[in-house]
Amino acid sequence: MIETPIGTLFYLGKKNEGVTVTVEPQDTTMLVEYTLNGITKPLPTNGVLNFKLSSDGSTTTLQLVLDFNSPSGGSYLVTVSRVTNYTEGDSVREWLQAGSAQLIKDYVFDTE
Fold first, then answer.
1. 3-state SS string for the chain
2. CA angle, corner 4, sides to 68 and 38, nearest 5?
3. What is the pTM of this model?
4. Domain coordinates of the chain in residue numbers?
5. Could you state, in chain order, the average pLDDT of each consecutive group of 10 residues for the chain (112 residues)?
6. Residue 89, class by beta-carbon neighbours within 10 Å (0-12 exposed, 13-18 middle, 19+ buried)?
C-alpha cells in the first residue's frame, strides 16, 4: 500500500489487502470511536484495528473520532502500517488536542 500523495490521509492498495491501524493515546485516556463501512464502534482497548480493503474496488473510509479526558492537552498517535513509500514502512500522524472539541479524521483507502 502507498500513501498518495505522501503527507495526506489517502492510501492506495490492492483488493482484499490487509490494513492495520494502531491508535495510541498520549497524556489522555483512550476515548476513540471509529466508523468503518457504515458501522460505528468503540476502538478495541488495545488500540489496534485490522480490516481488509474491498474486494470489488470500492473506496473504504475509516473515520476516527478522537476525544480527550482533560482540557490540559494530550494527543493520539495514529499509525497505518506497511505503507511502502515511507522509509520505515509506517505512516504515523500525531493528532493534538484542540480545545475541548473532538477531533474527527477520515482515512480513505482506494484499490488499484
1. CEECCCCCCEEEECCCCEEEEEEEEECCCCEEEEEECCEEEECCCCCEEEEECCCCCCCEEEEEEEECCCCCCCEEEEEEECCCCCCCCEEEEEEECECCECEEEEEEEEEC
2. 50
3. 0.91
4. 2-111
5. 87 93 94 95 96 93 93 89 82 88 93 88
6. exposed
